Structure formats: structure tokens, C-alpha cells
Amino acid sequence: MCGIVGYIGTDNAAIILERFLKSLEYRGYDSAGIAVYDNIKGQLNIKKTIGTINNLSEEITKNLKGSLGISHTRWATHGKITKENAHPQTSSNNKITIVHNGIVENYLDLKANMIAKGYTFTSETDSEIIANLIDSHLDKNDINEALKIVLSEITGSSTIVGISSEDPNSIFVVKKGNSGGLVISENEKGEKIISSDPSIISDFSTSYRYLVDSEIAIVSSNSIDFVQEVSKPESRRINITKNTIINDDSVYQFKMEEEIFSQKKALEGLISKKNSLIFKKLDNSKIEFKKVERILIIGMGSSFHAGLLGSSYFEAVSSIKSETINASEFIETKKVIGPEDLVIGVTQSGETAETIKGLEFAKIKGAQTIAVVEKDASQASIISDTTINISSGPEFAVASTKTFTSSVVSLLLMSIKIAEKRNTEIKNLKELLKNIDMLSSKVGSILSDISSIKSLSRKLHNQEHILYLGRGLLYPIALEGALKMKEVCYIHAEAYAAGEMKHGVNALIGDNMPSIVLAPKGSTHAKMLSTVNEITAREGRVIGLVSKKDLEITPLLSEHLTIESYHPLVDPILFVLPLQLISLYCSLRLKINPDRPRNLAKTVTVE
Predict the structure, then answer these.
(1) Band (181; pLDDT cuts 50, 70, 90)
(2) Is residue 37 within 8 Å of residue 94, measured between CB atoms?
């Protein structure tokens, strides 16, 4: 959740840390802080604030001097949003200063032991415990041994980056479990960056080293030394590829807006490179697809919704039994999993804690695994048998948009290739491929004419409750539309399979809860028409996303948007676009920053 940046070099560390930390604020923006070592005065200066690093800009410019430092942007887990709970956190004697991402599960026992030894605490965080714990082992050990001991003592997942007053010219790095990404990168000038996300350092260097569970490193101006290193480190040295997806001439006020409108280009790139990005990856995989009897997809949030569509694709196209399970419930359900299963983890960041644990659990049970991610390297890709990169480019707004549609299209293309590898005949394959190839232009057409979407947003933004209804492949899109409205507008939005209306949902129909129905022409149209009639018969207000020239359903609707339907497997991608835009424009009318919704963060690295 939290974002971490460290720097060692020759330039002003504070200025560099501030710049990079701003790019990590999607990981949390409750509070921020920075620590820079002034080697002339021989002291470590720490500045912290509630809110973003922008609040410290003046102090950073005027008062922080030095070429080594660490910084942090926080999403609160332990302790309220206060300056005292902001990072960096220090030990009682100020000898150890750390920034931390993760959760120390045994923090209460550790804190009690620390208090018994005379340590005091000024924050409510579990992170301060780590600082004191490291310090407690320095009386009999050097910093390397102390870090090893702490790694074995804390439970849960944690990423720790810190500075010891005994060696203030180096930064120590500790990785425990699956606590979000952490990379170390060095450029040609010998400057070094430590970062939670490699996508922010593409202009800094050309490669990075990804850290995994149980690794410890000491980074200095002269070297990067691993105190504890997991085997095959060369496999975790990654070359940086430049993102070209959102580099265009358009100017957007918000990242969410930019990312919605970049979907045409993102999908165009994915589809045009499908042979190298997906088909060859599956061809070269060691997964024995002919032996797969069931495909289980796990994910959270938008990735879960993409997975629901993926399961439908694998059954409809690949003729394999498939099911999508919320990653947080995957292990708890005690589902019987074995070598005949293929488990696909959909996680845009590749760091989602529950999805990582689910993939690890599947591996233990003997299942084959695939990670569907956006990053070139991530925890999900490292532990999986095969990785599919959705090639959307990095996404910084908290609400997923382009990564959702790119994940859906990736799963659809995977279903086609897996069917081929199993010698499964796909009916009307040429028509399906033709519609996939045309998808980016269809997306562009919708995004080029948004006046009616803005008009509808003016009528919806002041609603307290909204109902989203879909059937078949449009039900996951209803779920996604409701999620976007909750995330960036704080409007109570619920999504249901339309057939559920008579089983309790009808009780919600009224003036204060309009229904948005997704009703393209096709096999579910007649039943959706019946649903609309049921709602209007009870004086409910119905807004429809319908196919062009639908003369049956439009007379029943209060308002409607028309979307040209092409193919039942491709239409869901087109129908989600207006829902993304409606939530964006409603948030702007409500004067809510859609990039930074309250209480949320982009990358969820804790359970």
C-alpha cells in the first residue's frame, strides 16, 4: 500500500526523493515524510506531514541538504492519520530510522517485550516497533546480523528501508514475505534508487534488481551488497522498457481521465502484439494445457470482475470448466485443488497480497499457475509458471480503467490460444478475431463522442443510491460500473444479476434509487426487457445502455445511451467505457479528486 523511495548519489537527495515520491502517491496519501543525512553537519534531518509530500516542498527546498535519504507516502493501517504516525519512524534513541510497508502481525508481543526492556514509543504504528527491534540487537551484533535476527522475529509481510546512525552513508533494505514490490536500481553515474515501483524510474536508469522474500541488502555509494540473497538473482535483474501508451499530445487534468482515453491506444498495442505478448508466451510455457480439467481465476476488485468475464471466455471458447473466486476467499473456502487445475491470478500490480497468497497456495497443491499482470516483474510473475503482460502501460489513478479492459482482452485472447493448444474447435473463430482486431477503433468511436455521457452524469451525480443490472457477460460489467461509482463518487451503488430482482432487490425500487440496465441486443435482451418492465411498473426510474435502433426497450427508459453491438464476447469491453466516464464526470461535479478517493490506495499489499 505505502510507497517507499530511497536515494544515494551526488545530487540533492531531498529534491530527488520528493519528485519520485509524488509518483508513488497512488499507493497512499494519508501522510508523507522524508529523512536526509546531512554529511557536513553529521545529522539526519526528518520532516513529516499529514497529507502529501507537497506540504513539505518549502522545507525540502530550504532546509534539507545531503545526498542520501529515504522517504515514504503512507496508507494508514496501524494508527490514525497523524504526524506522529507518519514515516520515517525512529528508535527510542534515534539510532535507527526506517520507512516501512506491510504489517507486523505479532506487533503486540514484540511491543510488550520492547517496553519491558525500557524502550518507549511515540506512535501507534507497528513500524516504530521494527526500529526499536533492530536497535535492541545492535548491542551484541553488527547491523547485518541485527537485520537477519529481526527478519526471523517479525511475522507477516514487511518491506523495510532504513538508515543506521552507526553507518549513515548507507541504506539497509529488508524484504519479508509478500509486502509489495521493492527494487534497487543504479544508473551510469553510480546513483542508486530504491523504489516500491520500478515504473517510476524509467528516466533514471535502464535496469533494476527486484527483491524477494528473505533478502537483505546494504546499499552505499560504492556498492550494492546482499547480506542475504535468494538463489538465481540474475533472473530478477530486469531491463526497463519505456512506456509509450499514454505519451500523446492530449492534456488531461486527472490521471483517471487520461487512462480512460488511453484505452484505444492500449488495446491497439495489445491486440497488434498478441502473438508475442500472449500466444508465444503460452506456446513456450511448460504448462500442459491438454491435461487441464479446470481453470480457476482469482483476483480482487476490478481484477475479480475481469476474471468473471475470463471464466465465461474459457468455458465458451476453450470448453474448459472455469470459475472465478475472490482471492481473499480462495484459501478460506477449502476448495480442493490439484495438478489438473490451472490457477490464473489477475493482479494489475502483480503485488496484491491476497492474490499472491492464492497463487502460492495453488502451487503448494500442485496446480499450474499463470499471472496476468501489467508489470514486467512482480511477485506474482516470479512465483507463477507463466506470466502474461497486459501491456497497458502503468496506471496511477486508484480506480482501474485501462488495466481492466486490457486484462479482459488478454483473458479473451488466452482462451483462444488455449483452445488451439487443446485442439478445441472454436465456432466462428474468424468472426471473433475480426471483431477483436476492430476493437480499438470501436473504443475510439465511443470515446470521441461523450456529450451524452456528460449530460447523463449531470442527472446522476446527486443521487445517493444507484442500482446496476446486467445479465450474462454484462453482469461483471454492472459490478465494475458500480465499483467505479463507489470508488470515485462515494455514491452507494449496488450491482445485481438482473434475474435477482424478484428475489429481494425489487424492494429497493423507488424515486431515490435509479436503475442502470445494460441491455444490448442478443440472447439476454428479452429477459432484460422484462426486468425493465417490472421496474417501470413500480414507478422506478430506468437508465439504459442499449444497442442502436433498439425500438423495444428505449420507450421504457428515462434516459439512455446507445452503443453499437458487434459480438457478444467483445461487447462487454464497449459497455464498460460509458460507465467509467459516468463515474469520472460525476466525481468532478461532486468536486472529488477521482485520482485519490478517500480511504483507498492503488496497490493493496496487505491483507
Answers:
(1) confident
(2) no
CA–CA separation, 476 and 175 (whole Å)? 36
Phi, psi of 216 (to 5 degrees): -135, 135
For CATH 3.40.50.10490, list the domain ranges present in the chain. 255-447, 451-589
**Residues contacting 506, CB < 8 A, separation 6+:** 534, 535, 538
In tens, the pLDDT along 331-384 reads 988 889 999 999 999 999 888 889 999 999 999 999 999 999 998 778 898 899
Q: Is 507 exposed, middle or buried (0-12, 13-18, 19+ CB in 10 A)?
A: exposed
- Are the C-beta atoms of residues 32 and 82 closer than 8 Å to each other? no
Second CATH level (architecture) for the domain 451-589:
3-Layer(aba) Sandwich (3.40)
CATH number of 255-447: 3.40.50.10490
Q: What is the DSSP letter of 513?
A: B
- Right CATH for 3-239 from 3.40.1080.10, 1.50.10.20, 3.60.20.10, 3.40.50.300: 3.60.20.10
Q: Which amino acid is at 220?
A: S
Burial class, 84, CB count within 10 angstroms (exposed 0-12 / middle 13-18 / buried 19+): middle
- Please name which of 252, 371, 251 lies closest in space to residue 303, comparing C-alpha atoms: 371
Residue 58 has pLDDT above 80, yes or no: yes
Q: Which of 324, 389, 325, 381 is nearest to 356 (CA)?
A: 381
Q: Summarize pLDDT for 99-148 with one digit per residue, the tens.
A: 999 999 999 999 999 999 999 999 999 999 999 999 999 999 999 999 99
Task: Name the pTM for this structure.
Answer: 0.88
By the 10 Å C-beta count (0-12 exposed, 13-18 middle, 19+ buried), 473 is classed as: buried
Per-residue CA distances from 231 to 183, 214, 474, 578 (Å): 16, 11, 45, 48
Task: Give the H or E element holding residue 4.
Answer: strand 3-8
Dist. CA 70–CA 162, nearest whole Å:
7
Residues carrying an active site annotation: 2, 602
Answer for the pair 256, 584: CB distance below 8 angstroms, yes or no: yes
- Strand 341-346: give its sheet, edge to edge: 321-326, 294-299, 341-346, 368-373, 386-389
Q: How far is CA 174 from the centre of its chain?
A: 22
Euclidean distance between CA atoms 74 and 370, whole angstroms: 31
Q: What is the pLDDT of residues 441-460, one digit of tens each?
A: 999 999 999 999 999 999 99
